[in-house]
Write a structure and sequence with these properties.
This protein has a domain of 38 residues. Helices cover 40% and strands 0% of the residues. It is built from 1 helix and no strands. The N and C termini lie far apart (53 Å).
């Protein structure tokens, strides 16, 4: 069977972006599912039993190759598209 030619750099970048967006959408979906499950669990919870575990919200989407180190503190806000934290001024 013949092999396909390698993707151009632009096509590879587009494929990587689509893959990252899909993965981010999966994380957002899992977070929303967790919220819904906790809401239902709270309705049926018996007094004296522990509350369901807290859901962890996903970080804002950052495209691959943006240079963001994700080491921004929560007080600064999310990383921006140029790879800096929200509170840094360049």
């Amino acid at each position: 069977m013949a092999a396909l030619p390698p993707l151009s750099p632009e096509a590879q970048e587009a494929a990587n972006l689509a893959k990252a967006k899909t993965a981010y959408g999966d994380r957002v979906g899992a977070y929303k599912l967790c919220l819904a499950q906790n809401k239902v669990a709270d309705q049926f919870r018996v007094a004296g039993t522990p509350a369901p575990a807290a859901c962890v919200a996903p970080l804002p989407f950052v495209p691959p190759g943006s240079g963001c180190s994700r080491s921004c503190s929560s007080s600064c806000g999310p990383c921006s598209y140029n790879g800096t934290c929200g509170c840094q001024v360049d």
